[in-house]
Amino acid sequence: MDRETIDPLEIIEQAESLWPHNTHAVEDPAVSEAVQYALSKPTDAPNNVALLRRAGKHSSRVRRLFDVVFGKAMLWSDFDFFEAPCDRCLGDIQPQHSLWVPAGATVVEVHMCADCRVQVDALLTDLVWD
Ligand SMILES: [Zn+2]
pTM (2 decimals)? Predict the structure, then answer.
């Protein structure tokens, strides 16, 4: 049990310094929706640490952002990565692209099909894809 009091703003700053990219990705309405959906899913992850969460229908998977960025945690399995549907268009298509989108203390990983990537890249510049 963690009884330490941690300033929530500090956690947000921590997340921002670990993943400063793609803050504008939520300007795409469908990406924004996928992010909000991911954040609305229940999780038993700690709320006093910056997190990486998967978007996506089936998944409520969560990792500590620090561990993922510094390679101390396994990311998702190939099965999870290529799991249809696409998080953005919800089409029954294997996603091939991954976009990390900051949302406060959490970064949401959105998996997208090739068509969605083309559409998002046409709308927004300077996105960092994985
Ligand atoms: Zn798509």
Answer: 0.89
